[in-house]
Amino acid sequence: TKILKKLINVYPDKKDYWQQLVSIYQQQKQYKRALSVKHLAYKKGLINTEKEILALANLFLVINSPYKAAKLLKHEMSQNRIKTNSKNWEMLANAWAMAKEFDSAITALESASKLNNKGSLYQQLGQIYVEREQWSKAVVSLNKAINKGSLKNTGATYLLLGMSHYELTNN
Length: 171
Description:
By secondary structure, the chain is an all-alpha fold. The protein contains ten helices and no strands. The protein has helices at 2-10, 15-27, 31-43, 50-62, 66-78, 86-98, 102-115, 120-131, 135-148, 154-170. Helix 1 (2-10) runs antiparallel to helix 2 and helix 3 runs antiparallel to helix 4. It is elongated and about 70 Å long. The mean pLDDT is 93.
């Protein structure tokens, strides 16, 4: 660690040294330090591949900073440095949900759901709508989840769907 810190001071633009220091901190389970080093390397422009950026976002999530992870992912997706595929939209949605930014989570989950052939994302979206008492949107999402299939717990989806229909008829 000490040697790598010295090498970074002497060669601040040498990406390998930054990566090695991050790896050492991660092996030592010093995730906050690993994040600090990786984030500084990102700010210096040394972190620029999709894999590296996603790893940085994951570190934010590991230390329980989902808002920063979501902001990073959203920014990098808008700059086209991260693919706008289902997996990345889902990661963004989960980060927003962990940060309690449910409107942003819904938007990201809707994008992820459209790009995925499994119903689990629509089920997750339906769950958020149920929690927010947006019953008609919950019904639409849960029906899409059932139609797409590949659900781990189909019974829970039907239960949420039934609750949503019940609430719609009682309002």
